[in-house]
Specification:
Helix 7 runs parallel beside helix 8. About 40% of the residues are buried. By secondary structure, this protein is α/β, with parallel strands linked by helices. Strand 10, helix 11 and strand 11 form a beta-alpha-beta unit. The N and C termini lie far apart (about 55 Å). It has a single domain, classed as Alpha-Beta Barrel (TIM Barrel), CATH 3.20.20. Bound molecules: iron/sulfur cluster (2 copies). The site of one iron/sulfur cluster has 12 residues, from strand 5.
Length: about 400
């Protein structure tokens, strides 16, 4: 195997995501979903071409978000996640299976988070339904069966089964995946990975705890990420529909359950970093530390769209927020602080996008659940945003 070409990214060799409801695929979370028109899920022509391009120094257009970020002097997704390296199978375009298989069960979700989209939230889709022409030809039962066949056939080669939604725990297929893993119970176990908003009734929360307990009992591990983008009112603002008290009750139940397990795997606090919560990160890490939630490591995850919510929309105007982050004590989470700064500092050197800033102003002014002024009352550290939007 030769040295890594400049365009190398190991995602297309390692990860495969299929949205069985809409009939889409993608090899990494940064690429927009593509229409799925081939039942050979992990070796269809477009994916093979992507692999060929990435290892031949060709900037495949599917990866334009990474190339654009790099051209602007920002750290791209592949660089941030250290994926700009050779995979051990990089010389092959045809592979038997990904190591991370993500199955996305359409988009049913009980929330309408600001930085989400109709791809991932049925509540966003309600106001902007999909046209049939936007969906792939392999979808529904056919895509689901193909995904489950890949999972069962390649279980020994798959390391992580990632379930995605919408809110995956609320989807009936979550239980199916759990049962399948428990039935197969391969030697050494697998990793069941998912993010969850934990906004459940007590009944669903009990079922959820029973299911993950069974997963652990079958010899598997968990990689679970709980979404916290703001504490209390800030979280309710960013995640429309969320009741913080319900979420918090479930978070404490989960914390207590995980604390009793010998080795459950990994738990993270998924913080969707965006222009509205950059100055609130200190509150989130302080909440984790003061509520015995330190088993949840802050997880690096940034919002790539809508563009008005990205850090880069504000460019150099985020300088006051970057200074606030520098001045905040992140306690045991210093590496997370370093990570955020490594992303935000280059952004503070580029020009702002005035169109995106105007869109944000309009957006904040037209929210039904908080007025423009109420937003700044809930996020007092964001006064710099009000100034920039004047
Ligand atoms: S180069 Fe970027 S967009 Fe392309 S697969 Fe890698 S992380 Fe994804
Ligand atoms: S909980 Fe997750 S899937 Fe649901 S709207 Fe929020 S970000 Fe999207």
């Amino acid at each position: 195997m030769s040295d890594a070409p400049k365009t190398m990214c190991s995602f297309p060799w390692e990860m495969y995501s299929v949205d069985v409801g809409f009939g889409w695929w993608r090899p990494c979370p940064r690429i927009d979903f593509q229409k799925l028109n081939d039942l050979d899920l992990f070796n269809h022509d477009r994916l093979k071409l992507l692999r060929k391009n990435l290892r031949s120094n060709v900037q495949d257009e599917l990866c334009n978000k990474c190339w654009d970020d790099e051209k602007r002097g920002l750290r791209s997704y592949r660089q941030v996640l250290n994926q700009d390296r050779l995979n051990e199978f990089a010389d092959s375009t045809e592979l038997s299976s990904p190591t991370i298989l993500e199955i996305k069960f359409q988009n049913y979700c009980n929330l309408k988070c600001m930085f989400c989209s109709r791809n991932c939230s049925s509540q966003w889709e309600a106001s902007e339904p999909f046209e049939a022409s936007e969906l792939g030809s392999i979808k529904g039962e056919m895509a689901k069966q193909a995904s489950y066949e890949l999972l069962e056939r390649e279980i020994d080669n798959i390391r992580t089964i990632q379930v995605f939604g919408g809110e995956p725990v609320l989807h009936p297929e979550f239980s199916h995946v759990v049962k399948t893993l428990n039935r197969l119970a391969p030697e050494g176990g697998k990793e069941l990975s998912f993010s969850t908003n934990l906004f459940f009734s007590p009944k669903i929360m009990s079922r959820f705890i029973e299911e993950i307990e069974e997963v652990l009992r079958s010899g598997h591990k968990l990689y679970l990420r709980v979404s916290i983008d703001g504490v209390g009112q800030q979280g309710e603002y960013l995640r429309e529909g969320l009741k913080w008290s319900v979420f918090e009750r479930n978070l404490f139940i989960l914390r207590d359950f995980l604390a009793k397990q010998k080795d459950f795997g990994r738990a993270k606090c998924n913080i969707a970093l965006n222009i509205l919560n950059l100055t609130s990160l200190g509150d989130i890490v302080s909440y984790l530390q003061s509520h015995e939630l330190t088993l949840f490591q802050p997880h690096y995850n940034y919002v790539g769209k809508p563009s008005m919510l990205t850090l880069s929309s504000f460019g150099e105007k985020i300088a006051p927020a970057v200074q606030q982050v520098r001045d905040t004590d992140f306690g045991i989470y210093q590496s997370y602080k370093d990570h955020v700064l490594s992303l935000a500092e280059p952004v503070a050197r580029i020009a702002p996008n005035t169109d995106s800033m105007e869109k944000l102003k309009l957006f904040l002014s037209t929210q039904a659940h908080f007025t423009y002024n109420e937003f700044f009352e809930a996020f007092p550290n964001n006064e710099y945003i009000r100034e920039a939007l004047r």
